[in-house]
Amino acid sequence: MPGPRGRLQDNPVAGSKRVLLASPRGYCAGVDRAVIAVEKALERYGAPVYVRKQIVHNIHVVTELEAQGAVFVDEVDEVPEGAHVVFSAHGVSPAVVSAAENRGLQAIDATCPLVTKVHREAVRFARDDFEILLIGHDGHEEVEGTAGEAPDHVTVVNSPEDADTVEVTDPSKVVWLSQTTLSVDETMETVRRLRERFPELHDPPSDDICYATQNRQVAIKKVAEGADLVIVVGSANSSNSVRLVEVALEYGAKAAYRVDYAHEIEQSWLDGVETVGVTSGASVPEVLVQEVLEELSGAGYRDVEQVRTAEEDLMFSLPKELRQDASGRRDARGLGGRVRS
Hints:
There is one protein chain. By secondary structure, the chain is of the alpha/beta class. Helices cover about 35% and strands about 20% of the residues. The protein has helices at about 30-45, 60-70, 95-100, 115-125, 140-145, 160-165, 185-195, 210-225, 240-250, 285-300, and strands at about 20-25, 50, 70-75, 85, 105-110, 130-135, 155, 175-180, 230-235, 255-260, 275-280, 305-310, 315, 335. Strand 4, helix 3 (about 95-100) and strand 5 form a beta-alpha-beta unit. The longest helix has 17 residues, at about 30-45. The chain starts with 17 loop residues before the first strand and ends in a 5-residue tail after the last strand.
């Protein structure tokens, strides 16, 4: 949904104008895998292919896939019996899997493997009769899916403040897990407060917050130190994008805003601004970032410096149903992973 070009004025500022472009930014391997899964399902089976919830939390991606024939639904009971349905990157509970089976749906699971890892941890700890304190946002699809693996054992902890009031039955058998897209700093503060109350609190076997979330937060921390303004490209329901705005403000940016599209940038944001930091959430295609840079260029911010804090080359295999082409040969796109910045 591009807007008119050249809306922003090139007004003078005290010094020189520049952009600090965070890297890594944009698509992570799990998002890439999920989006390619829908595209390949459409190629293989033809439209419509149904998708439970948004495949990833980005309005542009969803709109593009709808144009190709994807139909997004809230629940599997909206999908015609026997049809193909893709489960989103955020994962689903066993109850959703069962509901799809009961309708005879041909399910393709595009859950990010890093989310699947957290699901398995929940199953394992519940089997050992641990109480699970799941740090995350109540109502988020990922949290619903993870909690659904062990509903009698899971309590959601929404914030550090919640850690001060949550109750457990046996403080010696408590473990914390987390949503993969949270603020690293806030999650660690929540864990610290939980451990003050429950000294025997167990840790997950490995970090639950995904590599991409952490890398994007590290990059924006570095950018924010020198930025008058930070612009985060990402949708409002994208947890990791919203966290990037918060992290930017916490680490020195004088102002920070989230936009879906370049035309949402307001002229007033640029008043007196010499340095603009730019990044994007893990579900954002690079084309949207380039449109932001083009818009800023029209306002005089043509000097773009990349601030790189990590290299990313992780790729995940596609869901098993999509690893071969229609003739049974291994598909060249059997791995999710486009070039990422």
